[in-house]
Design brief:
With 256 residues, the chain is of the alpha/beta class. The chain has nine helices and twelve strands. The protein has one domain: P-loop containing nucleotide triphosphate hydrolases (Rossmann fold, 3-Layer(aba) Sandwich). The strands form three sheets. Strands 6-7-8-3-9-10 form a six-stranded mixed beta sheet, with helices on both faces. A four-stranded antiparallel beta sheet has the order 2-1-4-5, with helices on one face. A two-stranded antiparallel ribbon has the order 11-12. A hairpin with a 2-residue loop joins strand 9 and strand 10. Helix 4 packs across helix 5.
Length: 256
């Protein structure tokens, strides 16, 4: 079963074509990582797939066109963590994670015991339960990133869209968050579609990768197929050496 099916996706912002005919499939339970230089259209493509931007073409989530899902239904299907989520000033970590339950709470209604339990469970599994009563803005980047993930997981959606979830993190917290996503993917049978800049790490975790350049798919396949010296030289204008590692290619920039 295909969790995310994208055909001929086009997005225009202020009259400029930003995403220019993208095809992409993510099977249920699969982890696909989109890479590409700054400005390639990664965030824009993800926002369109999440139903957050108008587009032309087809985006189907679990077989249903995203534009036919109502807001609440969509939120139960797909959870997005944007590149730099807004941190509402003064909001407590618990209340922030509880926002993920909005699609289950009746308009003007109150959260149920089940909603509270779901949030507690998710905060626990992300190891941030001890911050529940803290204001979100007082957390470190790594802690905060885990809370953003907690909000998305509390949503109970089967598809996770993560835009550079590790960019703000040091190498240790990067690894921790990626391991965590992978563990949760197994435990909760999640489908993961994300963007990431660190190419070696991206290749280690993704089942498949998509290289986006100037709004179009320049390469797609396994890390070995996508992370080639030629592809990277051409689309990132970078000189790299690609070395065979234990878990896939290692991308090493080399100076001239
Ligand atoms: P990426 O995530 O790959 O770095 P983005 O999707 O954020 O790229 O942006 C792709 C391009 O779209 C960039 O050139 C950016 O300047 C442009 N862009 C983003 N938002 C707008 C907008 N509202 N109007 C016009 N251009 C935009
Ligand atoms: Mg981006």
């Amino acid at each position: 079963m295909t969790a995310v099916r994208v055909r001929d996706l086009r997005v225009r912002l202020d009259g400029t074509v930003i995403v220019d005919g993208v095809d992409l499939d993510v099977a249920r339970g699969e982890w696909v990582t989109v890479i590409g230089p700054n400005g390639a259209g990664k965030s824009t493509a993800l926002r369109a797939i999440g139903g957050l931007l108008p587009f032309t073409g087809t985006v189907e989530l679990d077989g249903t066109p995203v534009d036919r899902l109502h807001r609440r239904e969509r939120a139960r299907t797909i959870a997005t963590v944007s590149q730099s989520p807004t941190v509402p000033p003064g909001m407590l970590v618990f209340d922030y994670a509880l926002l993920g339950r909005t699609p289950y709470i009746a308009p003007l209604g109150r959260e149920s015991a089940a909603d509270l339990a779901a949030v507690e469970e998710v905060l626990g599994s992300l190891d941030v339960a001890r911050f529940a009563g803290r204001r979100l803005e007082t957390l470190s980047g790594g802690e905060r990133q885990r809370v953003f993930l907690a909000r998305a997981l509390a949503q109970g959606a089967g598809i996770l869209l993560l835009d550079e979830p590790t960019s703000a993190l040091d190498i240790g917290h990067q690894q921790e968050v990626l391991e965590l996503i992978d563990r949760l993917r197994g435990e909760r049978s999640l489908t993961v579609l994300m963007t990431m800049h660190d190419l070696t790490t991206a290749g280690e975790y993704a089942d498949r990768m998509v290289l986006l350049a100037e709004g179009a798919v320049a390469a797609a396949g396994t890390a070995r197929e996508v992370l080639t010296e030629d592809n990277l030289a051409k689309h990132y204008r970078v000189r790299v050496r690609v070395i065979e590692g234990d878990h896939g290619p290692l991308v090493v920039p080399v100076r001239s």
